[in-house]
Amino acid sequence: MEHEITLIVNGAARRVRVPARRLLSDCLRHDLGLTGTHVGCEHGVCGCCTVLLEGRPVRSCLTFAVTVDGAEITTVEGLAPADGRLSPVQRAFAECHGLQCGFCTPGFLCTVTALLAENPAPTEEEVLEGISGNLCRCTGYQNIVKAVHRAAELLAEEE
Amino acid sequence: MKPPPFDYHAPRDLGEALRTLAEVRGKVLAGGQSLIPMLNMRLAAPDHLVDINRVAGLDGLERSGDGVLVGATVRHADAERAEVHPLLTRALKLVAHPVIRNRGTVVGSLVHADPAAELPAVLAVLDGRVRLARWDGGVRVREVRARDFFTGPMESAVEPGELAVSAFFPALPPGGGSAFHEVARRHGDYALAGVCAVVTVDGGLVATARAACVGVGPVPVVVDVGEACAGRPPEDADWAGAAALVRDAAEPEDDIHASAAYRRHLVGVLAERALRDAAREGAARGA
Amino acid sequence: MTTRLFGEPVQRREDPRLLTGQGRYLDDLGRDALAAAFVRSPHAHARIRDIDVAPALDVEGLVAIYTWEDLPERVGRPLPLLIPHPALTHGRTAHPLARDVVRHVGEPVVMVVAADRYAAEDACALIEVEYESLKPVVGLEEAVQGANLVHHDVPGNIGAHLVQEVPAADGRGAREAIETAPHTLAFRLDIERSASMPLEGRGVYARWDGRDLRVYSSTQTSTSVRMAVAAALGLPLPQVEVIAPDVGGGFGVKIVHPWPEEILVPWAAMRLGREVKWAEDRREHFISSAHERGQVQYVRVGFDDDGRLLGLEVTILHDHGAYTPYGIIVPIVTSTQLLGPYKVGAYRVEFSSVYTNTVQVTPYRGAGRPQGVFCMERTMDKIARYLGKDRTEVRAANFIQPEEFPYDQGMTFQDGRPLIYDSGDYPEMLRMVKELIGWDSFERAPGRGIGIGCYVEGTGVGPYEGGHVQITSDGRVHVSTGLTSQGQGHETVFAQIAATELGVPIERISVVTGDTRRFGYAVGTFASRAAVVSGNAIALACRKVREKALRIAADALEADPADLEIADGVVHVAGTPRASIPLSTVAVLANPLRYAFDEEAARATQFSGTAAPDRPPVAEGEEPGLEGRDYYSPIRSTFAAGMHAAVVETDPDTAEIRIVRYAVVHDCGKLINPMIVEGQIHGGVAQGVGGALYERMVYDQHGQLVNASFMDFLMPYATEVPRVETAHLETPSPLNPLGIKGAGEAGVIPVSAVIASAVEDAEGIPIDRMPISPSDLFHLRAGRRR
């Protein structure tokens, strides 16, 4: 049986019919064509599929689309402002070389965006704790950590 | 790694939820952070899934002088941020990673009854309880104490058709201190072993001391070590002796991450650390 | 805007798309394609008795089910043995779908194609395969006993056996040199299995239009996949194109090809006349993609009072799993690269490459070097301990000296060419790493230790790569090379090379890799070779284009080509900036036209008066267009080197191991982009830390991989990886025009050796087995107390 649901994705209401078992990650990627959200393990450990649900980072591979009917979801495609520039977090990742293959990056960007919204000036420990649920196999994390601090600076400058 | 098909139910109120559960005997979906991985790996294939995320009235987080009542859909992150109970807050910071805690629920972790998880140990050491409801022409409720709730690895007292609607974590008494120490392979992993402790200090002397272990038995291993250390000032009590009692009570097993011998050793180390810290905090709070 | 970009930390050109969700990885393509899934063997070793697909036939959305029996002869053949070697006397490869016998858990048995992956998995779950279980062979010791066989026709489970000997200068062999040495030591070293484990699994997506086949694969070699697919499907090569889209990490596992799915998915697409896609899930990746690292190494060494090696004998047991599609590259690399920056006197190395009923073993970043370096560096530490010397002193006593390059180690390297080091300065590197970590001022304390590890890495192996550079009439530069990218920043570093060679702003340069439509001749991305081989090829192609541009511009400017320079995309006479012509115009002039499609083009048409009427429009020996193609084929590998040092603390009670500091000195010749090189080192070290402290592939006695998930295969998070302090030494390679050496694998190579060295220093217990967990350390401590 299929369910008709509405997701507010990156500010736009999207109606979609899904079977109950449709994972939010698959709904975003395959039903809505938002392939920026990546799937790296489908058991909730790697963090590649992290999106913002009502502003909070969650694993879209551990969420059924039907469960979040009516909710607001932000994916990596919705992080940049509409003017075509990159968001401060995205800019900081580029500046600090915080990505290599880019596969885990959308999950990190969503996680870090939420982290800095809640804690605009995190300590080193808070940064590590904040990104501790996201795996990256390329960067060794050092430049990601650097990018989080840099993003905090950029956000502060924009205030 | 896609979940098998199931019939989906999304009740709006408790009565509907319980009637549905009574009828279909389905699996309850709350935060889904343990259930959905099992579905994705097709290790579980329930015919019916009863999603309680929309059930009104289950998201309460009520603090009173006696303790904290946590509703079935309260997320780890919300309970953690509310700082309603020092030991619960400490334990929540050890549960997986922040992103998982945004979705996972406190009650769900209890019902999942993973012996390596932190929250069952917390409920057990505090002698808390879980409220279970079912439909029997009306809402029938029973309360199960922690010692009866955890019945085996991944097994709880929840009967088919029942829903755990809340959990109650008793407050620490005046002079009560707590601590939670664990060793995990990676930050956020299930612990190789962990110990939480509650120690009360009354008039400068240790009055009670309890510890509960994670990861070293089929259910949380609760040990009352009051006799080994009561009646002495916290800085003077035989914590090593008390920790040895905890260590001896543990029933660890070998797995790919650590040997049983190492786990047992860890329990001793962590129990002493936790008991000392809890006593220190108890003394400070009692003062 | 400067165009001298070689050596600058230029921000990556890949990033804007990857940061905004606009990357195109394999599973982002083919939204309407059918999905494939596989029934994989649950047994490590079994005979297939029967396959009953009937229960699955009613699954909604099911399109097709294929077993080996359904495959045409050509498609069902065993997969190719990619790198034959005379010592690989018993090479064996799998069929794309199992025929009769399965030899590891995860081996594909049945292919299902359905409307989506959910339906495909539903069908897989219903297909019933009846197996007759056979005795599994698990673990090296069991395998070499040969009581049970992985392949009935491979006695003793020995796939390959190779002995290599390099006598001492006086002609004595290693055994004699060891026996007559003043001091000898003998010991065993173990390294467990790990795996590349990129966050994007493998994947294949194919479309067939009735004549041409297009295949997208998350691969490290699109050109070779193309040849393999064309061969297996019997298609003429020009009718097959293979594209590596954005690839979410490779680290070695994606250099293997063709994977069964790379044959089966295109075949199914042709047979069904529908687009078919398979995106590997994580569980599949654990049990059906390759692993590496597992080796047992026995060492005998003879040395003098100064710790100078006189003879070294190493016997290696290498577990290559159930099949050998990639030959015996890993133990060959261990055998040769074990030598590191040292002169070992006489050397004898022998390996047996052994079958087990486990996932096949093929190179993972480092490719046998971590094991070899672990072997040599543990040897150095043991000699130092035995003689009571500082560990760095023993190493220094054995270094090849700067004036001894090129240095011939007297062996044959993995490319079949002599193992001759091109350049390096190991004493200086040691001085640098000691200074960086503070070796001489380190305060030793119980539970606090310092360790070191040195390595040499042969990089940039041949046979060749090519580059194509085209300047179009809009002044843009289009660079393509056939090898592929998995996050190394090739679009940026190759653009830096082109910008520098051509004098064009980097913004006008675009780079395409791994697309056979753009460049058909290539080998692939492995062995830290992309920058060296493709980088130099692109530089050479740029030089051809530049020469042609100058020739045409000289004609137009009535100047001598030797007097011309290019800056900011404009050719001008040196010292006379006003006598100039933009490359866009040169591109127009390079391509005489009959038809104009825009104003620029009009300048090249036949009545525009730009061509001399007394010469053919395209002069003899010239070709139309401002483009060039060239290849770089290295005579042999370049040899990068590095030295790492670390400080660790061990908890006296819990035996937890914490890396407090980690220092890297690295020499990859001339740096193209130091930011990217550092990123490669950071990532390599993190993988090394995983291999040293966390990651192992645990098989039980039945051949089940018991930790096939990210819950239990412990890849480090940010909380587990230390901050890496780096310093660079640049000894240019004399072998190639750009003077560069490879950097991709470097970071991972010595980490297990370094951490073992530091933990041993902290604990005073020999550390001979990696990875090491707190539980392992606890038991080592308990053993010492006994």
The number of helical segments of chain C is: 19
Flag low-confidence runs of chain C: none
Strand order of the largest sheet of chain C: 3-5-1-12-9-10-11
What is the CATH fold-level name of the largest domain in chain C? Aldehyde Oxidoreductase, domain 4
Total count of strands of chain A? 5
Could you describe the largest sheet of chain C, including whether it forms a barrel?
Answer: 7 strands, mixed
Ends of chain C: how far apart?
A: 69 Å
Task: Give me the Rg of chain A, rounded.
Answer: 15 Å
Kindly report the name of the CATH homologous superfamily of the largest domain in chain C.
Answer: Aldehyde oxidase/xanthine dehydrogenase, molybdopterin binding domain
CATH class of the largest domain in chain A: Alpha Beta
Oligomerization status of the protein chains: heterotrimer
User: What average pLDDT do the residues of chain A reach?
Assistant: 97
Main sheet properties of chain A:
5 strands, mixed
β-strand number of chain C:
29
Q: At CATH's second level, what is the architecture of the largest domain in chain A?
A: Roll
Counted up, domains of chain A total 2
Mind telling me which CATH architecture of the largest domain in chain C this is? 2-Layer Sandwich
| Major β-sheet strand ordering of chain A | 2-1-5-3-4
Strand content of chain C: 15-25%
Q: Can you characterise this structure?
A:
The complex is a heterotrimer of chains A (159), B (287) and C (786). Chain A contains 5 helices and 5 strands. Chain A is an alpha+beta fold. Chain A folds into 2 domains: 2-77, Beta-grasp domain (Ubiquitin-like (UB roll), Roll); 88-158, Orthogonal Bundle (DNA polymerase, domain 1). A 5-stranded mixed sheet of chain A has the order 2-1-5-3-4, with helices on both faces. Chain A starts with a strand and ends with a helix. Helices cover 34% and strands 28% of the residues of chain B. Chain B has 11 helices and 14 strands. Chain B is globular, with a radius of gyration of 19 Å. Chain B has 3 domains: 7-51, Uridine Diphospho-n-acetylenolpyruvylglucosamine Reductase, domain 2 (2-Layer Sandwich), CATH 3.30.43; 61-170, Uridine Diphospho-n-acetylenolpyruvylglucosamine Reductase, domain 3 (2-Layer Sandwich); 176-286, Enolase-like, domain 1, CATH 3.30.390.50. The longest helix of chain B has 27 residues, at 260-286. In chain B, strand 11 and strand 12 (191-202) form a beta hairpin. The N and C termini of chain B lie far apart (55 Å). In chain B, the strands form 4 sheets. Chain B has a 5-stranded antiparallel sheet. In chain B, strands 11-12-13-14 form a 4-stranded antiparallel sheet, sandwiched between helices. Chain C is an alpha+beta fold. Chain C has 3 domains: 33-134 and 202-247 and 254-288, Aldehyde Oxidoreductase, domain 3; 163-182 and 187-193 and 291-461 and 635-785, Aldehyde oxidase/xanthine dehydrogenase, molybdopterin binding domain (Aldehyde Oxidoreductase, domain 4); 463-632, Aldehyde oxidase/xanthine dehydrogenase, molybdopterin binding domain (Aldehyde Oxidoreductase, domain 4). In chain C, strands 3-5-1-12-9-10-11 form a 7-stranded mixed sheet, sandwiched between helices. In chain C, strands 7-15-14-13-8-29 form a 6-stranded mixed sheet. A 4-stranded mixed sheet of chain C has the order 18-26-27-28, sandwiched between helices. Classes of the chains: A alpha+beta (159), B alpha+beta (287), C alpha+beta (786). Chains in contact: A-B, A-C, B-C. Chain A: Pathway: Alkaloid degradation; nicotine degradation. Chain A: GO terms for molecular function: 2 iron, 2 sulfur cluster binding; metal ion binding; oxidoreductase activity.
